[in-house]
Structures are given as structure tokens and as C-alpha cells.
Amino acid sequence: MSPLLFAVFTADMPTLQDVQTATYADDTVLMVSNADPKVASEKMQIALDAVEDWTKEWRIKINGTKSAQVSFTLRKETCPPVQFGGQSIPVRDEVTYLGLHLDKRLTWRKHIWTKRCQLNLKARKMYWLLNRQSKLSL
User: Fold this and answer.
1) Which of 19, 44, 68, 116 has its CA 20 to 30 A from that of 138?
2) C-alpha angle 82/78/76, rounded to 5°?
3) What's the distance, Cα to Cα, between the start and end of the chain in Å?
4) Computed from CA positions of residues 33, 76, 69, 73, in that sequence, does the dihedral angle turn out positive or negative?
5) Cβ proximity of 128 and 136 under 8 Å
6) How confident is the model over 33-45, as pLDDT tens digits?
7) 23: which residues sit within 8 A by CB, 6+ positions away?
8) Cα–Cα distance for residue pair 73/107, rounded to 1 Å
């Protein structure tokens, strides 16, 4: 019931042209795409200011420690930092969203490595059941 209520509560979140908003449960992502990193940051700042005004109106607190800014690009140049609530959002090289580990070059290396580690751990936990000396019959 709470995801439905949250969706109803956040249905009027401001949206702007050229800014995509993705929400799932209580996770929200704002995405801007532009060839010029400065223009992308300006558009993102405008969107963040609109969301900040909306959160103040509805008395919603944003957890700043979970916020991150990532520039997905093959270039060395990244987007200038943006602010939310008077605090600069930390710029990171990778971020985790809904279980996906995304790096700034979108190589999937970190995600695949993390999932392999998780599968290896599960296989080790089941080793007693699957090894040759197991008492289970086929």
C-alpha cells in the first residue's frame, strides 16, 4: 500500500523539458542529456531548484548523503557540480541504482564483478549440498 500512496503523493513532482525523471518507490533520478557539459549542468540545476521548491512546499526531506552526480561520458571533461538545498551534490565516478552498478563510462565491469561475487558466495553456501560427498541421492 505504501508504494501506491507514495506514487500518489509524488504525482505532482515538477517536470521540465529536456529533463527526464525516473522514480521507483522512494528512489528518484533526474537525467539531462546535452553535448555541452555546462548546458547539461545548467538544465540540471534548474530542475533541482524546481524539485527543491516542491519538497519545501510538501515538507519532504531529501537524504543528501544518498545523492550523487555522475556524468556518463567517454570524454575527460565532466559536468560542473550542481547544488541541492544549498549543498553541493558529490560528483562520483560510479553509482548504484536499483541494484545496478553504473560507472561513468557505462562499461558494466563493476556490476558484473559484483554479481559474480554474490553468485560465488551463494554457491559456497550451497557447497555442502552439491559436493561429491553429499548424502543426498539424485
Assistant:
1) 116
2) 170
3) 43
4) positive
5) no
6) 999 999 999 999 9
7) 7, 10, 13, 29
8) 11
Ramachandran sector of residue 106 (left: φ over 0; alpha: ψ -120 to 50; beta: rest): left
The residue with cell 555546462 is 38
| Ramachandran bin of 75, using left for φ above 0, alpha for ψ from -120 to 50, beta for the remaining angles | beta
Q: Give me the helices (H) in the chain, please.
A: 2-9, 37-58, 109-125, 127-130
3-class secondary structure, 40: helix
Taking the C-alpha atoms of residue 29 and residue 51, their distance in angstroms, rounded to an integer, is 11
Q: Centre a 10 Å sphere on the Cβ of residue 43 and count the other Cβ atoms it contains.
A: 19
How does pLDDT run across 124-133, given as a tens digit for each residue?
A: 998 888 788 8
Closest CA to 44 of 6, 3, 76, 81: 81
The three three-digit cell numbers of residue 103, written as one number: 560507472
Of residues 12, 96, 24, 105, the one with CA closest to residue 51? 12
Full 3-state SS string of 46-70 = HHHHHHHHHHHHHCCCCCHHHCCEC
**Do the beta carbons of residue 43 and residue 21 sit within 8 Å?**
no
